[in-house]
Amino acid sequence: MPIQERIRAEVTGHPIVLFMKGTPQFPMCGFSSRAVQALKGAGASQLHTVNVLEEPEIRANLPRYSDWPTFPQLFINGELIGGCDITCELAEAGELARMIAEAQKA
Predict the structure, then answer these.
(1) Which residues share a beta bridge with 27?
(2) Which of 10, 46, 52, 53 could be a cystine partner for 59, CB 3.0 to 4.6 Å?
(3) pLDDT of residue 1
(4) Does the reported pTM lie above 0.85?
């Protein structure tokens, strides 16, 4: 499967997808760690993650797919939400919890 199709399958196959460095249990960068904490704090129980450190093809091609240069990258219902800063801002504003609740019941 071509890498762009594989990325699309990851993004559309799960309601909430975080492309991150490391895993939720062992994040390998502070930004990924903060994004996971924000998502968990907002009630994300169906969080699907992709460790881009173990997936060099995804790491190399996701920025072209999403037009977003850095990691982590959060997608909800197939749509790019953004990186760590946007995820944390949405969490602080209470928006992330609403978005997650809608995605998880869809």
Answers:
(1) 22
(2) 52
(3) 86
(4) yes
